[in-house]
Amino acid sequence: MSSLFTPPSSGSTKRKAYFAFYYDDIMRVNNVRNAWKIDHPDGSLNRSFYDSSLWESKKLQGDDAVKNLIRQGVGYTSVVCVLVGTETWGRRWVRYEIARSVIDGRGLLAVHINSLKHHSRLQTDQLGVNPISRMGVARKDNGNLHLCEKIGDTWKWYADYTDSVNLPAYLTEPSAGNVRLLSDGTHEYDFVAQTGHKNIGRWIDSAAQAVGR
To answer: Are strands 187-190 and 107-112 parallel, antiparallel or unpaired?
Structure first.
């Protein structure tokens, strides 16, 4: 379902999450990361999260350096959690982080952060487009499943990863000639409206369970 959803109340398992976001949203992102740290403090051998900050300094080293670091970061986690601001949906490397969740069989979810007040304007903003709704999977003529992305109003084969992928555990099979949106089987949340500072651990736990992690 691509709808705001709150799972039933229950204790959550300690997970390692990867936070994907547009770096211009870093102040709002820090609210989420700090909430995650409070609920899931790092141990000396067990980090609670990895995120886009890991590769921000690598962008000048070229595409391969960024992809390698994202792959390593996602590889240490159970879930990719996309923190959604106004422009997140259009960022190339956020899409690659989403793609890696599919390639590596990780859980996936979106959390809207525009409901948090902007650090300088002290105002909230309209919720942004969920980037997960702009990516999907479809079968090519040879029967193999591949990633797709929506560019403008058109679906295209995803250019940053061209190998075939497995169907994510949270999705049903796409019908012939159609794209199955990743948002069809994942959940999106509003960090403020759904009390994310208390519930984000359970949201991440739910996404991990959906893929058996």
So the answer is: parallel
What are the extents of the domains in the chain?
17-132+183-210
Question: 17-132+183-210 maps to which CATH number?
Answer: 3.40.50.450
Count of other CB atoms within 10 angstroms of residue 89: 21
**For 59-190, where are the alpha helices, taking DSSP H only?**
63-75, 92-103
pLDDT band at residue 55 using 50, 70 and 90 as cut-offs = low
**Parallel, antiparallel, or unpaired: how do β-strands 79-84 and 107-112 relate?**
parallel
The mean pLDDT of 9-22, rounded to a whole number, is 72
- pTM attached to this predicted model: 0.87
Among 48-52, 121-125, 133-137, name the one with the lowest average pLDDT: 48-52
Backbone phi and psi for residue 84, each to the nearest 5 degrees, phi listed first:
-95, 115
Q: Is the dihedral of CA 98, 100, 11, 30 positive or negative?
A: negative
Q: Which has the closest alpha carbon to 194: 3, 5, 2?
A: 5
